[in-house]
Amino acid sequence: MPRVLVDGQSRDQVSVLDRGLGYGDGLFETIRFVEGKAPLWPRHMERLVEGCRRLGLPAPNPAVLLSEACAVVQQLAQAVVRITLTRGAGARGYKPPTGPQPTRIVAAFEAPPPDPVAQADGIRLRLCATRLASQPLLAGIKHLNRLEQVLARAEWDDPAITEGLLCDAGGLVISATAANLFVVAGGVLATPRLDYCGVAGVARAQVLAFCPHAQVREMPLAELRRANELFLSSSVRGILPVREFGGHDYVVGPLTRALQAHWRALGF
Q: What stretch(es) of the chain map to CATH 3.30.470.10?
């Protein structure tokens, strides 16, 4: 069972009138902790604050969140903390309350076990039929409505396939269901633009900071077949090489290996 704090109290229930439950009105962050520390904590807080600004939510105190996160990960060497922030309880109807009282949920889970084979040899990736809708007001932030990802992940049940690739309505590559995508072609690192849909992951931000000359641009699906390296970035799973997608095989190249080494150097 997860260890959970709701508004700082040890309980695992919220009001049935909570707008997070009724309308997906809120945000969340999924944060990897190692020995009580979260190497990417500042990036998570930066995205959470930006999400609050976009949705018009009062931003929580990062010091309070960190204190609660450290409390729930006690005695867990490897943990994943999910911070959920909703607009709180309110009357029925879409109109937000004028004085919201946000609900704050901090929960810790055992981290998924490491997969050295996937890290060393890469994973298999499939193309999802589900497309991501365009909504620039929500693009980039980690809002609570993840139905597109749920539908996409329901498309396969083959344990040999680790992730699914998502495109937008126009067929441009956006991301995997729970990770961001990077390609290396001709020695140039690139990742899809997320101006209209998709989640701007904190691991993606870390990769872009480590590789400041990387390109952020529109990415047609056909470009993936011309790439030399393909990898995913995830704050929970790290840097995952892709070894096969759509019948095309990829090598785990030097840039992917360098980023994996950088990830380890961060403390993961």
A: 3-110
pLDDT digits (tens, 9 = 90+) for 192-232: 999 999 999 999 999 999 999 999 999 999 999 899 999 99
The class of domain 3-110 in CATH terms is: alpha beta
Does this model's pTM top 0.90? yes
Which residue in 163, 159, 145 sits closest to 234, CA to CA?
163
Q: Which two tokens stand for residue 248?
A: 């095309």
* Tokens linked to 60: 């929580």
- Domain at 116-265, CATH class: alpha beta
Q: Which of 82, 27, 30, 70 is nearest to 235 (CA)?
A: 30
- Residue 99 — pLDDT band, cuts 50, 70, 90? confident
Parts of the chain belonging to CATH 3.20.10.10: 116-265
Residue 101 dihedral angles phi and psi, to the nearest 5°? -115, 90
Is the pLDDT reported for residue 1 higher than 80?
no
Distance, CA of 158 to CA of 100 (rounded, Å): 43
